[in-house]
Amino acid sequence: MLQFMLRSVGLGLATAVLLLVTMPSLRSTVLPPSIEPSTDMSPQAQISFNTAVRKAAPAVVNIYSRKYTEDDRSKLLTQGLGSGVIVSEKGYIITNYHVVAQADQIIVALQDGRVAAAQLVGKDRRTDIAILSVEGDNLPVIPLNPQYNPKVGDVVLAIGNPYNLGQTTTFGIISATGRSSISADGHQAFIQTDAAINEGNSGGALVNTRGELVGINTASFQQATELETYGISFAIPYSLANKIMQKIIADGRVIRGYIGIDGQDINSVTSRLLGNEHLGGIVVLGIDPNGPAAEAGFEAQDIILKIDGQKINGRQSVMDLVTELRPGTSVDVLVLRKGEEKTLNVTIQEDTRE
User: Fold this and answer.
1) 335 vs 287: CA distance, rounded Å
2) Per annotation, catalytic residue among 83, 124, 128, 175
3) d(CA 343, CA 13)
4) Cα(333)–Cα(261) distance, integer angstroms
């Protein structure tokens, strides 16, 4: 009986393999593409990200910041090293604020051998983003995909100029998203990766396996915390970097809205007590006595539910909504106070904090 069953199973497997080999069209429905059997068993068969690198690498530039010497203003010395990413045919380059923050002159070197002085369009210390521009014909532009959503486990490549060795590509995965613990204000969400990011990589590109820009490399955990660590690096998501770039191009700086509250997400127990319709609200813990929220009548322990008619989803969504509002704009904020809903009208101010 056992021999009969084994013979039947073996015959079935052999038939399935024969069908897959003779009828390739069946493979897409039977096997996912990632595990499709390969008929190429030669030593040359390999996984390669060369196509992605060839698409992205030409648009990743080396950046050298130069500063006047203290005793002779006519002499410039190279003061800093970093990388940048060309994201527009108009010559706009995204890099890190800290790469060019102290520069008197910025030099950009393309991978095709061209070298040019760059103009600083604007910078934003809070997000560690700076925008440069260079002039040139047929500038390489990195592939962009605004619809791409970084997910944990996605394979990524970090491209930059570590230690001025020349353009280098490292490999890893996205280890986490939404990391805010290392940002200066504890608010900005970073992409965490185990692709190596070293000195000189700052401002370079983090790309996916299609060569599309995922983020702007900014720091390793060791640089951020002075701890001896490996395999923990960070990048600014492209969606945020692009938003900051558009603001800088439009206004020369980043203009953010401000209402002057500090809050935290309500916990699961509180949300169940309040009901599902209040899920996502935040509890007001602190109020700037000189800010718009105080003037509008906010009180500690108010629970914010909606801003300008939009239902909020946690503390981060409140920050995103408020910072996008232009100063001088008046908005209605729906709050829950002692079990009763109230609408408070707030006039947005500009956030002048560094």
Assistant:
1) 14
2) 128
3) 68
4) 12
Catalytic status, residue 202: yes
Which two tokens mark 248? 């800088």
Rounded Cα–Cα distance for residues 336 and 329 (Å): 22
Residues 159-213 have pLDDT tens digits of 999 888 889 999 999 999 877 655 445 456 889 999 988 888 999 999 999 999 9
Q: What is the DSSP letter of 300?
A: T
Tens digit of each residue's pLDDT (9 = 90 or more) over 252-300 = 999 999 999 988 877 655 555 566 666 778 889 899 999 999 999 999 9
Active site residue 98: yes
Residue pair 133/91 in contact (Cβ under 8 Å)? The answer is yes
CA distance 270 to 281: 10
Report the 10 Å Cβ neighbour count for 191: 27
Contacts of 138 (CB under 8 A, 6+ apart): none
Nearest to 188 by CA among 161, 215, 208: 215
| DSSP conformational letter for 189 | P
Q: What does the pLDDT read at residue 276?
A: 60
From 65, 83, 98, 183, the catalytic residue: 98
Place of tokens 């490996």: 230
Q: What is the pTM of this model?
A: 0.77
Q: Cα(101)–Cα(339) distance, rounded to whole angstroms?
A: 49
Cα 198 to Cα 108: distance, rounded to the nearest angstrom: 19
